[in-house]
Amino acid sequence: MQRRPPPAVPDALEPYAEALRTLVPSREALLAEAKAQRANRRRKTAGTALLLALAGWIWLADPMLGYRQVEVASSDHDVLRLDDGSVIELDAGSVLRIEYRLRSRQFELLAGEGLFSVAHLPTPFIVRSQGVAVRDIGTVFDVRSDLRGVRVAVIEGAVEVDNGQARQQLTANQQLLASRQALGPVEASNPDELRAWLYGMFHFDGTPLDAVIAQLQRHRDAPIHLNNPTPPLPRLSGEFPTDNVEQLIDALPRLAPVDVQREKNGSVEVKVRR
Asked: What's this model's pTM, rounded to 2 decimal places?
């Protein structure tokens, strides 16, 4: 007679097996999760590298993050004291843009004249106007921007003038007239003329008529037109108060071979007698 196998004894843990399988991930699930984590780490590493590269580019490119524009009235002059200790004095009718950058101090003189007394710091100090850049090398210098171009004059220290085509270093008591096209010859500067406007005076020392009119224009709102400006132009010498611009305009025919005509709209026509 064939003996039957004894009935199987039920496993006491069997009711919990399915619950355990749901709590403990399978080998395949663990491998898939590890692979996903490695891919995520690679993405994070690539993103971090990209951010570092972008930050490095921004630092090297030194982009303008913002700016503030200062405009001086025709009957005024202004003094700006910067956070770095530098001082900028602006003549009447001047317009200066102060740029905010990461690793340089940059300014654009859109019109007029400014005297820059620069604090010595590692960050470059650069003034631009009409395509001409003036880089401070530790100095006090004056920049005038008008229809004749950009006149750069050094009172103390030295600057480098760059128009993208040529460079020229200037030291104390030197000046030049620059434009986007060319840098003029280096000439001796006149300290009295450079500082005269700070004390409310025009100082002319053999100054060409077009330069005289450019200075007068900054001190009045209505335009002054120079007719027949063909060289050679008359030159003026002398000192005159900046608050008497109208009297000086009326006196021009006595100071130079010119005729002056005033229009009803306030504009003035100055014509050279030939």
From this structure: 0.74
Using CA atoms, how far residue 198 sits from 64, 182, 204, in Å, is: 31, 29, 14
Whose tokens are 């580019």? That residue is 57
- Shared-domain flag, residues 76 and 185: yes
* Burial class of residue 59, CB neighbours in 10 A (0-12, 13-18, 19+): exposed
CA atoms of 66 and 45, how far apart (whole Å) = 32
pLDDT at 221: 92
Helical ranges in the chain per DSSP H: 14-23, 27-61, 191-196, 209-217, 245-255
83 and 178, same domain (yes or no): yes
Domain count of the chain?
A: 2
Whole-number average pLDDT of the chain: 85
Tokens of 159: 């600057």
Where in the sequence is the domain holding 225, given as residue range(s)?
Answer: 200-272
List the structure tokens of 163. 């128009």
Please check whether residues 161 and 257 belong to one and the same domain. no
With a cut of 80, say whether residue 13 has pLDDT above it.
no
